[in-house]
Amino acid sequence: MLLAGKWVDAAQTFGVYDPQDNRLIAHVPLSTKEDMKRAIDEAETAFQRHKDWPTHERIKVLKATVEYMNENKDLYAQTIATEGSKTITEARGEVKRAMQTLEISAEEARRLKGETINFDQNEGSENRVGYYYRFPVGVVGAITPFNDPLNLVAHKVGPAIASGNAIVVKPASVTPLSALLLADAFEAAGLPKGMLSVITGSGSELGETLVQHPAVKMVSFTGGLNAGEKVAEQSGIKHIGMELGSNSPAIVMSDCDLDDAVSSCVAGSFGAVGQNCIGVQRIFVERNVYDEFVKKMVFQTKALKVGDKLLHDTDVGPLITEKEAMRVEDWVNDAVDQGGQILAGGVRKGAFYSPTILADVPESAKIVKEEIFGPVVSVFPVDSLEEAVEKANSVDYGLQAGIFTKNLDHAFYAIQHLECGGVMVNDTSDYRIDEMPFGGVKNSGLGREGIRFSIETMTEPKVVAIKL
Fold it and tell me: Is the overall model pTM greater than 0.90, yes or no?
């Protein structure tokens, strides 16, 4: 692992397994609290040593990192697909996005500016001029999930480096290799020693140390709600950015392009095996097109190829572990026990769970209220847009949502009344570019990611007033 600019081992290791066949693919260091403390202390030292790190050098490092990744993009994609759940096609897409994330970070480093302040707006301050500028908070602590093991790390490291911070990353234990490869790229790009550490190991062992350490001035966390609540409780008075998942809705109006809505909902529900915080989990369809929509969606879903994720024609691979597939199976069975019907899928084989469509699921079912994080979507008929929006808002999450309609009034009603961080018109919730502000309301998190918005959280404004 990369600890303060040095590649080090630990006294113990743990295994990383391919979820497809449970094959051991690597041993990585099992870090201790002392390792994490050392990484943070070294990060603070490195930050103090590079407080005057010029913008042009930060840009140079970020661009060189992208070049290194591009030269080794096949290795990065193969690693993502092997240690995680994504197909090789999806993994290649993630590598491309991660490089874009770092490219945007380099661009935003140029735009890290303040503003002049008109002090003479206040009576008696006519003889004052000044401005504010933004400076880095210091050490950023980052905890990342398994579902985007490269790009979600890049979304934390890129803005941190662009704004002049040091950063310590604790990647998901099941997918640490992609984060280590990203660290390798930054090392090859000439990142100053100590400005980045990637510490592998158990979250229960390392997480509390990372978020509570007084030198860590900002915590960036992506993961589940329960873990996020612990992070918020433990971190104390410091900047916090948290993306905690969702239960995203799509609304399908009768005036939309139905074929486009169907294909978009299939992709949005089952991409990345549904292990996607903005994946579609609930679809509300206007009643007069409900039967046609469901028929077409079932047909397209049954046509998806489930299998070897390293084959180019595979659409859906395994979940991250067999335990997760069993949990998804239990949630579906619970919905069926309460009256739900399986229209497609509903079959588990090891860590694989077939893309599943449910109908007639009662709103009290867990699968309707909570985040399934698996390849399962529930469809519901509705009689009006108002009903669809009300039901879409009925959960404790609000990350993103989608609506399919050709009616501008319908679109803007949804935009104004859906309780979420982003509304996608004629697309599903499963749309994102890496530059846009990304985050949600309610239990979906705090703050926004997206490079410029992450940089704002990773910096502080300082006011300068000069009396003439």
Answer: yes
